[in-house]
């Protein structure tokens, strides 16, 4: 059984990081900070995806913790078929598949129908293969999106922002680090950490000099 990692949040007051950790810990620290009558704007993000987190900090700390966004809690896996307390119907086990419309050309349907197991089995195999083949590309894309969302929210007006974004999507981590050198310390540190996951080492064939 796979276990989802615990979400991590990060909170900033202005350009200063004030909390980093599990959602309940960050929510408690942010609530305590806001209650000191600080006038700084507080922004909270998922530390990995940079998804913004909205909390109603006008409530008591107990109410804030009781009303944390549901997406901050790892999703529980469904009980396996046949587990105690879960009736299991007779016949073939359910695969958890979802029926949706797929539009293909006639020759595609003909090829799929000729495959062992039919069209559905063949499509699932093709999708699984593509998911494995593109796993690294998908991870890089998600990492770039997370870094961009954070940088745009926290440093959109900073010098070097446009150059940093160009470097991010070019996979040039060294150039990005140079572009963000003058950003506020905590913002720069988190932006660089997010961008590291999106960095790409250019293949030698792209940098090799043409032969004479």
TrEMBL record:
Domain of life: Bacteria
Pfam families associated with the record: DUF2239
Biased composition (Low complexity): 73-91
Region described as Disordered: 69-91
InterPro entries for this protein: DUF2239
Full protein name: DUF2239 domain-containing protein
Organism in which the protein naturally occurs: Methylocaldum marinum
Lineage: Bacteria, Pseudomonadati, Pseudomonadota, Gammaproteobacteria, Methylococcales
């Amino acid at each position: 059984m796979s276990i989802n990692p615990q979400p991590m949040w990060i909170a900033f007051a202005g350009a200063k990081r004030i909390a980093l950790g599990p959602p309940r810990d960050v929510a408690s620290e942010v609530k305590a900070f806001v209650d000191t009558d600080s006038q700084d704007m507080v922004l909270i993000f998922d530390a990995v995806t940079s998804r913004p987190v909205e909390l109603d900090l006008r409530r008591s700390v107990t109410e804030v913790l009781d009303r944390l966004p549901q997406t901050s809690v790892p999703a529980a896996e469904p009980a396996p078929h046949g587990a105690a307390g879960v009736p299991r119907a007779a016949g073939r086990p359910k695969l958890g598949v979802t029926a949706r419309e797929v539009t293909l050309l006639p020759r595609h349907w003909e090829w799929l129908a000729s495959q062992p197991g039919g069209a559905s089995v063949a499509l699932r195999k093709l999708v699984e293969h593509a998911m494995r083949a593109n796993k690294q590309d998908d991870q890089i894309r998600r990492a770039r999106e997370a870094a961009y969302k954070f940088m745009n929210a926290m440093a959109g007006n900073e010098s070097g922002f446009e150059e940093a974004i160009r470097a991010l999507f070019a996979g040039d981590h060294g150039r990005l680090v140079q572009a963000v050198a003058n950003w506020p310390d905590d913002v720069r540190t988190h932006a660089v950490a997010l961008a590291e996951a999106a960095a790409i080492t250019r293949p030698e064939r792209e940098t090799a000099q043409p032969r004479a």
